[in-house]
């Protein structure tokens, strides 16, 4: 059979007709201008109504040698490498729903296309939550798992993959499979996490849930330099306050701390100023610690933390505006830095030195994992030079810098991944689960 991607208009119409038969008249179409993955346009869009229909889409793709790329809400569709081709974009929006679970079981089975915020709202009505606060607005559960995305709560509870009990997914040939129920099964389920749909199409996930904390407070302190952040984090972690999150926000303007006169310093320390917001420089960043638990013990830990952080520390019952958001905007070159927390300040200084300017940095400083942004207008060769310099510093510190998203010219000019351990294992998994390289080909490191 001649591959459909090599045929003319009649072959394309036939594929569109077959997709319509599988998914329904309103749920299959030729792709439009917005249907692309990291700049690579799709040919058709299919929105199957359930696992059986999704399996039929994959079987159709196998018969006609078509590449399939899953899409949830599309909030991270530009993350990672551009696939070699996108013949069918398989939209998981109708693979949604929350299965009924007996009270107290501690798990929830959720369709991959379920919006994360809908899941959280449903759980909240029963006094529960999923300990996952991914920053992408409107993200689906499947999309969060496929990207292994996590927010501030990763400090205590880990990433999306750490919440997994089991997965149901479709292999490249359309066979429905399950992963979980033991160490080997859970290892395979977690392998599918972060695979960007290149190892299987997620259908549903069983995730751990927990009671909603009775009390939550955010303790904030202004910061000016990465070295100051380093010292404060060491003190916070050594105090054994059991934080749920330790987050940092260093805006592009956050630089050296401005000196105050003696009178201003004395006034800031006066008892009448205790508990009031800092009047420090507008360029100051923030170090924020989230405490969760029972009201009495959270209040006691907050008092200890304020004493530790000093008179500029403040306590709030709501998160700061930047909480659970990325420092980059569409069109920027988005970076993720991972390094042991003892070397986080060195990584941030290295990035600033290489860029020749202050770079916005935000993320889970208590784990040594932060995000940063370079301007989208920056020349590709300049971005490549910055990455080389930063990765050189991180290599000696067992850290890494990954490009999550970038303008097309930058994406073509740079190595998105840098040094990557475990590439051989990933290649073996791709060969086992998708030997024909039909699922999001080229989306994974190493062109897999």
Structure commentary:
The chain is an alpha+beta fold and 448 residues long. It is 31% helix and 22% strand. The chain has helices at residues 9-23, 51-63, 116-124, 141-147, 154-157, 183-192, 226-238, 262-268, 295-309, 344-355, 380-395, 408-413, 423-433; strands spanning 28-30, 36-37, 40-46, 68-71, 86-91, 107-111, 128-129, 164-170, 176-180, 201-208, 210-211, 215-223, 245-250, 285-293, 314-316, 333-338, 361-364, 369-374, 400-405. The strands form 4 sheets. The chain has an 8-stranded antiparallel sheet. A hairpin with a 2-residue loop joins β2 and β3. α1 runs antiparallel to α2 and α7 (226-238) packs antiparallel against α10. The longest helix is centred in the C-terminal third of the chain and has 16 residues, at 380-395. The two termini are 25 Å apart.
Detail the topology: elements first, then pairings.
Layout (H helix, E strand, L loop, with lengths): L8 H15 L4 E3 L5 E2 L2 E7 L4 H13 L4 E4 L14 E6 L15 E5 L4 H9 L3 E2 L11 H7 L6 H4 L6 E7 L5 E5 L2 H10 L8 E8 L1 E2 L3 E9 L2 H13 L6 E6 L11 H7 L16 E9 L1 H15 L4 E3 L16 E6 L5 H12 L5 E4 L4 E6 L5 H16 L4 E6 L2 H6 L9 H11 L15
Parallel strand pairs: 3-5, 4-5
Antiparallel strand pairs: 1-3, 2-3, 6-10, 7-11, 8-9, 8-10, 12-14, 12-15, 13-14, 13-17, 16-18, 16-19, 17-18
């Amino acid at each position: 059979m001649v591959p459909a991607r090599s045929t003319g208009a009649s072959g394309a119409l036939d594929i569109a007709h077959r997709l319509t038969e599988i998914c329904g008249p309103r749920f299959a179409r030729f792709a439009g201008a917005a249907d692309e993955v990291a700049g690579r346009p799709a040919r058709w869009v299919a929105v199957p109504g359930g696992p059986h229909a999704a399996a039929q889409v994959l079987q159709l793709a196998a018969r006609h040698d078509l590449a399939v790329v899953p899409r949830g809400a599309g909030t991270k569709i530009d993350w990672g490498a551009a696939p070699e081709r996108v013949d069918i974009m398989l939209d998981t929006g109708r693979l949604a729903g929350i299965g009924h679970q007996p009270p107290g079981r501690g798990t929830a089975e959720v369709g991959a296309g379920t919006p994360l915020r809908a899941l959280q709202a449903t759980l909240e009505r029963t006094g529960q939550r999923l300990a996952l606060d991914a920053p992408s607005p409107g993200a689906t559960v499947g999309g969060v798992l496929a990207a292994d995305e996590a927010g501030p709560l990763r400090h205590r509870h880990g990433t999306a993959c750490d919440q997994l009990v089991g997965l149901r997914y479709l292999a490249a040939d359309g066979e429905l499979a399950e992963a979980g129920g033991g160490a080997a099964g859970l290892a395979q389920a977690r392998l599918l996490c972060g695979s960007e749909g290149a190892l299987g199409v997620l259908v549903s996930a069983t995730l751990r849930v927990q009671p909603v904390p009775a009390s939550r407070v955010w303790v904030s302190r202004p910061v000016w330099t990465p070295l100051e952040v380093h010292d404060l984090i060491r003190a916070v972690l050594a105090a054994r306050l059991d934080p749920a999150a330790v987050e940092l926000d260093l805006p592009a303007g956050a630089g050296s701390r401005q000196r105050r006169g003696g009178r201003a310093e004395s006034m800031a320390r006066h008892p009448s100023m205790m508990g009031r917001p800092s009047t420090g420089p507008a360029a100051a960043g923030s170090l924020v610690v989230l405490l969760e638990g029972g009201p009495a013990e959270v209040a006691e830990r907050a008092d200890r933390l304020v004493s530790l952080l000093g008179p500029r520390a403040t306590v709030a019952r709501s998160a700061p505006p930047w909480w659970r958001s990325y420092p980059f905007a569409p069109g920027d070159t988005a970076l993720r830095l991972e390094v042991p927390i003892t070397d986080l300040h060195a990584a941030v200084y290295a990035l600033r030195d290489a860029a020749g300017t202050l770079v916005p940095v935000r993320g889970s400083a208590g784990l040594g994992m932060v995000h940063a942004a370079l301007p989208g207008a920056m020349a590709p060769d300049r971005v490549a030079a910055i990455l080389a310099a930063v990765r050189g510093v991180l290599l000696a510190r067992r850290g890494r810098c990954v490009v999550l998203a970038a303008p097309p010219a930058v994406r073509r000019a740079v190595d998105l991944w840098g040094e990557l351990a475990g590439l051989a294992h990933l290649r073996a998994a791709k060969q086992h689960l998708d030997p024909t390289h039909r699922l999001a080909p080229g989306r994974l490191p190493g062109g897999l």
